[in-house]
Amino acid sequence: MNTFVSKNEILKCELEQLFGEQEENIETAGQCLKVLSHPGRLRIMCALRGGEQTVQNLEYYTGIRQTTLSQHLSLLKSRGVLVSRRETTYSFYRIANDQITELFDLIKEIFCT
After folding, report:
1. What are all long-range contacts of 39-45, with beta carbons under 8 Å and residues at least 24 apart?
2. Which carries the bigger pLDDT value, residue 85 or residue 15?
3. Sheet (strand 53-54) strand order
4. What is the dihedral of CA 99, 100, 101, 105, to 10 degrees?
């Protein structure tokens, strides 16, 4: 039993060292991963891997109706996964940074090969 307690204490110390002052970052990571867990949002991410797209193009590529698509895009943007810009009457979306693209590529490699 003593060995079990010491292994638990070692694990607890390792986790505290790894995540010590990172509670906010852990929460942000959890929210980001949670938002990516929806099949429709994964389709959106796949469509955006090649670069910036208009909402109209995303609707065509994903088959998601515009009203639902807008909700997904808004959620992905609020979690920092996507960024957007407006040009005249068009909204353009793209993946926020290369690390998110790499994460998505890893997800695709694991589950879609």
Report:
1. 40/64, 40/68, 40/69, 40/72, 41/72, 41/75, 41/76, 42/107, 44/69, 44/72, 44/73, 44/76, 45/76, 45/81, 45/95, 45/104
2. 85
3. 53-54, 90-95, 82-87
4. 100
The proportion of the chain whose per-residue pLDDT surpasses 70, expressed as a percent, equals 96
- Cα–Cα distance measured from residue 28 to residue 42, given in angstroms and rounded to the nearest whole number: 18
Three-class SS of residue 94? strand
Dist CA 101 CA 63 (whole Å): 21
Q: CA 32, CA 104: separation in Å to the nearest integer?
A: 12
Output DSSP code: residue 87: E
3-state secondary structure (DSSP) of residue 95: strand
| Domains of the chain, earliest start first | 39-113 (1.10.10.10)
